[in-house]
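[stage:ingest] chain + small molecule (copper (II) ion)
[stage:ingest] validated
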Amino acid sequence: MRRPTAAAAVMAAALTGTGLLTGCGSSSGTGDAKPELSVHSAYMPQPVSATMAAGFLTVENKGDAKDELTSVTSTEAEDVTVHRTSGGVMKEAGPLTVPAHGRLVFRSGGNHLMFDQLKSAPRQGRTVPVELHFAESGTVKVEMPVKSATYNPATGH
Ligand code: CU
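[stage:predict] done
[stage:export] tokens:
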């Protein structure tokens, strides 16, 4: 009778160990569910205008809770707003949700960041510092590389 018990104990220990390693918790409650954000594929097409530019990126959430992008700032621009494109027209978007185990995508023709009153014209090869402010995760800093005006993230050109 001892062997099965010992095996079960080892198994339970192994499972607990896994839970601790990944930090996912045992998901018995919602108390420790947290968003786990990372930012990918950030870029700014070199703008035609000297004072205004668009920016794109993807926010990925590997956590068990959603988060919300409440605002965006940059030391290089007086104002950064979040826009969505609807029927070919740009509109200011409210706080955007990053779903649990999901992503929030900014791409050409869809959601984008709008930089207004830039301090200097962004040039290809340089980066623009951007701070993304989230309701749960706080501030996430991104160095957004400036690409060519016709850059296509799908092809990398
Ligand atoms: Cu816009």
